[in-house]
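[recover] target loaded
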């Protein structure tokens, strides 16, 4: 008798029969050729090496285009995974050029250009893609260029700096880096999640306990402050004026995803340590329960209300990629995770019937219809489909299991601090990173209340 999950997968595949004729995921070869088309369509959003545009970024940031700076950093990670899973190196040169073009003046992914919308999470997404390059043995840059591992260390070093961990809320990173940015008074899960994730991965890659100690401190703080609750729900964040007790209870899939992946690295690094196994079980169960109803990815905080921002439209893809990688470094999770990812990927692919070519992907995976497309929607389905090949892919390497990227423990430590205020243009202000609306909404509430009180 098939397990309920297998039966559901079959049902989803039946529903998918309306999919674009050229798309199929029934064999590894078909997954590869489907992913190739999805990758081509995703890359059509990138105009960075056309005259007059900026190398490395997607059109933006608003109002110059739809996409904030961080999303390209995330996309290059998705393209690295695409290469790793399918073997298609078509875009590796573009990815290399883009990842190098945005390292910034101090090679720590804090380019002055984007200071006015620079959050720890924005920097963190670029840092996690650099880390992934090291873990996948993505081609190394020439020796005169910053190396992947050193770039990841630079991001981690700037974020581990005591200057970024003030005592409000008992610790933790703020959302924004410069104090003049909207959201500097907010401490949130994604900023701390990226730092935690990077630390856990650096610990495993370099077999260095310092990174693990910081990661554990961040994880424990997340629990103390209540951003992670006893059921492993992860909430968005809280304001320093309230010592972070005004918790915004919105749950976004990338929060549980980024912590689950980091916890899996800690689990692996500690050779199956029970603290991390318990946490991994809880986070994986939460991710699948909350964000995969009927085993199909669903962005619960915004999708039902049709209120997903451009940022949020890209979260499903990260969660697919991260959950897939968890099955490599914590193999006991594979039986739980992989059937869900298969059902969900099939549903996502079934939305790819839009646009002129009738193959643009949408976001309504739950009912498998095309709604609207964009780089996020394309990246989500590309990520879900390529990660179906995870079982035949190599796990992430370390410095002692074949990793060739060169590190630098001091990378980023003499960076010019971007904490000092910078000139903010109207455009930049609108461009504060993730969850702008929610945070501005509640920040306005806070300040409104405070001035009424005075
Ligand atoms: C910085 O922004 C300017 C104008 O938007 C652009 O021309 C330039 O290429 C950008 N530099 C980098 C490194 O992104
Ligand atoms: C961008 O540059 C890469 C590598 O140099 C090249 O392969 C690609 O065709 C270029 N893309 C566009 C849109 O010009
Ligand atoms: C602020 O929050 C932290 C973390 O929850 C807690 O340890 C600390 O006691 C709180 N401080 C005050 C003054 O309530
Ligand atoms: C750690 O990851 C490796 C793959 O790199 C895997 O073979 C090993 O089983 C993992 N360790 C544990 C405790 O699951
Ligand atoms: C599918 O769900 C989306 C919202 O996610 C909704 O806008 C659309 O009308 C639904 N389509 C059908 C055919 O039910
Ligand atoms: C990484 O491995 C190389 C040999 O493969 C070794 O020379 C180097 O010291 C290692 N780096 C660290 C930080 O352990
Ligand atoms: C471990 O990492 C820390 C943090 O970067 C560094 O200061 C330390 O020197 C490293 N330890 C070893 C033994 O390389």
């Amino acid at each position: 008798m098939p397990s309920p999950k297998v039966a559901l997968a079959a049902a989803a595949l039946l529903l998918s029969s309306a999919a674009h004729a050229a798309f199929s995921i029934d064999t590894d070869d078909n997954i590869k050729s489907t992913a190739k088309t999805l990758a081509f369509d995703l890359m059509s959003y990138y105009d960075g090496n056309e005259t007059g545009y900026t190398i490395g970024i997607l059109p933006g940031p608003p109002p110059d285009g739809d996409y904030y700076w961080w999303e390209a950093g995330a996309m290059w990670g998705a393209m690295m995974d695409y290469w790793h899973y399918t073997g298609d190196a078509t875009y590796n040169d573009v990815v290399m050029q883009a990842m190098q073009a945005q390292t910034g003046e101090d090679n720590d992914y804090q380019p002055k250009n984007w200071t006015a919308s620079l959050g720890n999470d924005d920097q963190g997404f670029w840092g996690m893609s650099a880390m992934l390059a090291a873990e996948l043995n993505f081609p190394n840059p020439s020796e005169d260029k910053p190396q992947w591992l050193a770039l990841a260390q630079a991001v981690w070093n700037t974020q581990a700096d005591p200057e970024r961990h003030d005592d409000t809320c008992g610790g933790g990173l703020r959302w924004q880096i410069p104090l003049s940015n909207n959201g500097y008074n907010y401490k949130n899960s994604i900023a701390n999640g990226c730092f935690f994730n990077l630390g856990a991965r650096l610990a495993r890659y370099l077999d260095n306990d310092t990174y693990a100690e910081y990661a554990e401190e961040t994880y424990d703080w997340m629990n103390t402050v209540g951003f992670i609750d006893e059921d492993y729900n992860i909430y968005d964040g809280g304001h320093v004026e309230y010592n972070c007790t005004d918790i915004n209870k919105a749950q976004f899939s990338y929060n549980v995803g980024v912590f689950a992946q980091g916890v899996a690295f800690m689990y692996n690094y500690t050779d199956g340590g029970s603290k991390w196994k318990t946490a991994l079980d809880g986070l994986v169960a939460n991710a699948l329960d909350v964000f995969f109803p009927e085993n199909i990815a669903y962005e619960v905080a915004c999708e039902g209300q049709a209120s997903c921002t451009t940022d949020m439209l890209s979260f499903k893809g990260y969660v697919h990629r991260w959950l897939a990688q968890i099955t490599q470094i914590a193999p006991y999770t594979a039986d739980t995770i992989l059937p869900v990812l298969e059902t969900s990927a099939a549903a996502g692919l079934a939305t790819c019937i839009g646009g002129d070519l009738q193959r643009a992907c949408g976001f309504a995976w739950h009912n498998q219809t095309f709604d609207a497309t964009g780089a996020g929607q394309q990246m989500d389905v590309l990520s879900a489909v390529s990660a179906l090949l995870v079982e035949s892919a190599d796990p992430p390497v370390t410095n002692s299991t074949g990793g060739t990227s060169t590190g630098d423990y001091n990378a980023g430590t003499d960076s010019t601090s971007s904490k000092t205020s910078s000139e903010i243009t109207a455009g930049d202000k609108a461009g504060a990173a993730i969850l702008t609306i929610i945070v501005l909404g509640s920040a306005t509430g806070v300040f409104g209340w405070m001035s009424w009180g005075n």
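[recover] notes: The pocket of 2-acetamido-2-deoxy-beta-D-glucopyranose (ligand 4) is lined by residues 268, 271-272, 328-331, 395 (CB under 6 Å).
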